Amino acid sequence: xxxxxISMIFLILLLFTDIKRLINKIQQFLDKxxxx
Length: 36
What we know:
Layout: H1 2-35
């Protein structure tokens, strides 16, 4: 049971970091478009 909770938290953290990375990429892309 505890292991399940830990793995769930781990998964959420992984997803969260991935989403942040995605947002960063999108912002960089938008910046490039705005500059050109």
